[in-house]
Amino acid sequence: MHTQSISALEGNGLPPVTRPKSRVSWAFAVISCLYYFLAYGTLARAVPIFGKLFPGLGVPLPLLTRLLMASYSWLFPVLCIGAVILTIARQFVQLGKLQLRIVNLMHVVIGIIFPSLVIIVLYLPLFDLIRKLSLAH
Fold first, then answer.
1. Number of neighbouring beta carbons within 10 Å of residue 84
2. What is the pTM (predicted TM-score) of this model?
3. For residues 69 and 55, what is the distance between their CA atoms, to the nearest angstrom?
4. Neighbours of 110 (CB within 10 A)
5. Distance between CA atoms of 30 and 84, rounded to whole angstroms?
């Protein structure tokens, strides 16, 4: 019966369902999920701190910083939960070569590039202040 349900799914154009992967693969998936929760939780706590700092700087906030300040409360949970779902789903679904590359690219963007960009965007007003102070000398 189990094989029939798997072959029925494969016939619908969906990727073939496989058994769970090795323990090492699962350990990496769990560590990845913990990383997503830690990274996005830390960023979500840092944004309000920067928000309190910005009014005292006396510099206008760049557009990217204003967008981040306005959207972090829903954007970070969406990205974090999406990354966790993608990581766990990857353990159950066998992906083709192109699909695997796309999923890996999404992991890199969500896990490495986006958090780094958030930090840079949070520091943009400080960079602007430093530039203005250096021009004043």
1. 19
2. 0.76
3. 13
4. 20
5. 9
